[in-house]
Amino acid sequence: MTDPLRLLDIPSIVPPEERDIQETVAKFAEDRLRPGIREWYESGEFPRELAREFGKLGVLGMHLDGHGCAGVSALGYGLACLELEAADSGFRSFVSVQGSLAMYSIHRYGSDEQKAEWLPRMAAGGAIGCFGLTEPDFGSDPGGMRTRAVRDGDDWVLDGSKMWITNGSIADVATVWARTEDGIRGFLVPAGTPGFTARSLGHKLSLRASVTAELVFDGVRLPGSALLPLARGLSAPLSCLNEARFGILFGAVGAARDSIECALGYAKTRTQFGKPIAGFQLTQRKLADMAVSVNCAMLLALHLAGLKDRGTIRGEQISAGKLNNVREALAIARECRTVLGGSGITTEYAPLRHANNLESVLTYEGTSEVHTLVLGQALTGIPAYR
């Protein structure tokens, strides 16, 4: 057995249409992504040409309807995220931000003209989007944002900054959230708009095969048509984050599965004291515990996909999935590194790369602490973080 999810025969319960999606994305990852990931991770590079390849694959905004989007099920989208993150979290991050944040914000809250202008190009990978919510001093508390948009005749003038923005410096358009006299509103800011600059952040130990940037807005003048007309209040950007978190809870399973497969293959061939280390009780205990954990995480993901496809999923349920699955995946990746011994610190083997990436995944789209408090509020009715 190489796939630990076969321990409980989980692949057999995936419907044929979604299984086809998963297999297609898995083959793309095997043929196109895995051969280059060591080089891209070490060099801190995300190849921009992958955007059009993801578009051709059909994974950009794949869970949205119309405007060049495939409109697949939540389960199909989740399984695509799983296979992308099994290759590297950076690939799933790109697809999540493009489809579940930038495109979803336009699809859900944009005008017909905004949808027609941006969504077909973004679905094809011809235009890249980013999502500007987090600020240097306001991560878990986005309601405290300082970025401000002020009316000036028919225009808006935008000032402020955003931090830790995936795709930021390669994006053709940014969805930017700002405080206005009418509350928090969303704006579409095309790259190259005077006063708008994006700077890539380097020296990262995590998500190295992904672009992370700071966005700065210095008197950026936008026409009235840049406003997302249906987005009012903080609930709008938070609804986009829930879309991205759903992909994350599947993606984390992919990183965990890939780590176990790597450790299992190594343990069967690495010989110590005259036999493969897979034959030692302590190694088998590690492998057994990790296999049970990843199967439980996958069953949780499948259950939440069912709720989402039925339109009954709640925010705290997504929080439970993101909290559990990322936490378990990070523990699994770290444990798999111990199975690999000293070899596990090199880029030849995936688990430590996955563990490094998952440190970011644990923090973005809501930290583990915040998701814990979301669940605490759901259980007690008392919001502990306010």
From TrEMBL:
Keywords: FAD, Flavoprotein, Oxidoreductase, Transit peptide. This is Acyl-CoA dehydrogenase family protein. The keyword Oxidoreductase applies. Residues 232-379 form the Acyl-CoA dehydrogenase/oxidase C-terminal domain. Pfam families: Acyl-CoA_dh_1, Acyl-CoA_dh_M, Acyl-CoA_dh_N. The keyword Oxidoreductase applies. InterPro entries: Acyl-CoA_Oxase/DH_mid-dom, Acyl-CoA_Oxase/DH_mid-dom_sf, AcylCo_DH-like_C, AcylCo_DH/oxidase_C, AcylCoA_DH/ox_N, AcylCoA_DH/ox_N_sf, AcylCoA_DH/oxidase_NM_dom_sf, Glutaryl-CoA_DH_mitochondrial. PANTHER family: GLUTARYL-COA DEHYDROGENASE, MITOCHONDRIAL. Residues 16-125 form the Acyl-CoA dehydrogenase/oxidase N-terminal domain. Gene3D superfamilies: Acyl-CoA dehydrogenase/oxidase, N-terminal domain, Butyryl-CoA Dehydrogenase, subunit A, domain 2, Butyryl-CoA Dehydrogenase, subunit A, domain 3. Belongs to the acyl-CoA dehydrogenase family. It comes from the Bacteria. Its cofactor is FAD. Residues 130-220 form the Acyl-CoA oxidase/dehydrogenase middle domain.
